[in-house]
Amino acid sequence: MATAKPAKKAMTKSQLVAHLAEEAEVSKAAVNTLLLALAETAYKQAKNGFTLPGIGKLVVQKRKARIGRNPQTGEQIKIPAKTVLKFRIAKAAKDAVLGASKK
């Protein structure tokens, strides 16, 4: 009988801070401050587009109003226009994680 592999969990903030501190040979406090500043900058600059080179871009996008359907009743409903936040993955990140696509 084959045993299932345990699912790997996402890296926590404290694990990320510890890993980056070790890699950069700086204190965990310095890395934590840098991550907080990076997040704050991303929030403030998202409306202009905030790019993390090699990872992706955070952008604000406007969605038009549209007609949708209630899946339970099939009744048509109006979905209002709204502004959403999206993260577009960089090609370099896709290739690094998923492997380069062959054409």
Could you write a compact summary of the structure shown?
With 103 residues, the chain is an alpha+beta fold. It has 2 domains: 11-45; 49-103, HU Protein, Chain A, CATH 4.10.520. It contains 3 helices and 5 strands; from the N terminus they run H-H-E-E-E-E-E-H.
Question: Can you offer a commentary on this structure?
Answer:
With 103 residues, the chain is an alpha+beta fold. It has two domains: 11-45; 49-103, Irregular (HU Protein, Chain A), CATH 4.10.520.10. The protein is built from three helices and five strands; from the N terminus they run H-H-E-E-E-E-E-H. A three-stranded antiparallel β-sheet has the order 1-2-5. The protein has a two-stranded antiparallel sheet with strand order 3-4. The longest helix has 18 residues, at 28-45. It is extended, with a radius of gyration of 20 Å. It starts with 12 loop residues before the first helix and ends in a 5-residue tail after the last helix.
Chain-wise SSE layout:
Blueprint: H1 13-24, H2 28-45, E1 50-52, E2 56-63, E3 66-69, E4 76-79, E5 82-89, H3 91-98
Antiparallel strand pairs: 1-2, 2-5, 3-4
Distance between the termini: 39 Å
Mean of pLDDT:
90
Radius of gyration: 20 Å
Shape: extended
- The computed structural class is alpha+beta
Let me know the largest β-sheet. Answer: 3 strands, antiparallel
- Beta-strand content bin: 25-35%
CATH class placement of the largest domain: Few Secondary Structures
> Could you name the ranges where pLDDT drops below 50 across 5 or more consecutive residues?
none
What strand line-up does the widest sheet have?
1-2-5
CATH superfamily of the largest domain: IHF-like DNA-binding proteins
Give the helix proportion (percent range).
25-40%
